[in-house]
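Narrative summary of target 7.
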Amino acid sequence: MKNINKKRIVLVLVFLLIGSLLIKGSVEVMAVDDYGAKGAKQVEDYTLEEMLVYAIQDEYLALAEYELIINEFGEQRPFSNIIKAEKHHIELLIPLFEKYDINIPSDNSTDHVILPTDIKLALETGVKAEVENIEMYDNFLKKDIPEDVSEIFNRLLNGSRNHLRAFENGLNRNNRVNRY
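Modeled conformation, tokenized:
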């Protein structure tokens, strides 16, 4: 009887441990998904503040991700070129926060960045990030927003389209090089 009770206690503790790990893991996934363009996907109706926050978070995230990739794999295109553009995108958004009296969120993007294991995955990550960024700005531009915000979002959208082409070209170059 004592052995059965001990086994039950051990089983209960194991289930509690597994349950807490599953809950913790799902919370971390939700935290990552609530940032930048991924966070914007979770919302259907945005306030101006939410749009600006998601936009700058996504620009912070792209900058942090591309800096991490360069630190790991060395200075190479298109990452080295796009980093400059991401900094500029952030600079374009800041005056909108100031004009509309919205607090600029702190940059905690490094909490959300995952380093790809090789340059091909890094390029694929760039493609995916820009596709999500384009979707976010497309959704924002369907909303009734002030003209100056619309103008900046359109500029950022066009920049993301250029970045997407650069990453796709980089991926094509990488695939050709690795075939031989």
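The CA atoms of residues 30 and 39 lie 9 Å apart.
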